[in-house]
Amino acid sequence: MRIPKPVNTVLDWVEGHAGPLAAVTALVAAAVAALWMPLLAGFILGIAFGGFAVHLRMSKRMSRLRREVDDLLRENGSLRHRNTVLASGVITREAQVTQALVAIPEDVPLEDPLRTQKLPALPDEDEVVDRADEDAVRRASNGKGTREKRRGPGDTADLSES
Prior knowledge:
Elements: H1 5-16, H2 18-36, H3 38-88, H4 93-100, H5 125-142, H6 157-161
Helix pairs in contact: 2-3
């Protein structure tokens, strides 16, 4: 038996608007029942509001699950595409093997790579002053410098002389 086109259109519309139609039907039933049995009207309203609360709660879960399914389908599609490209021979078998292998460095350090490396030690202040003296003596012997000791910006030797 064929369903007439106008009836099919109405059924499609009802299917698309089932939620609001159920809410309106529940409210009309509660209004009619309130005239005869107020207790039945409260029961109908309770079922309607409870169903709406469950619907809201489940719709949030369903939207999250739909997003996860979409992500999984996208990932599956990209993996299928990659496998199709690999199977088509665009990339040779040798290239597939070399891309799959992990690169191992030529000179492997003998030390533990997770160990903390030591920083180079800073020279003591005495060593710095000795080097400065040696540089001054070297310049003086070449005739290009003075014999005066070099003083840094924070040197207090000037203050003690005055």
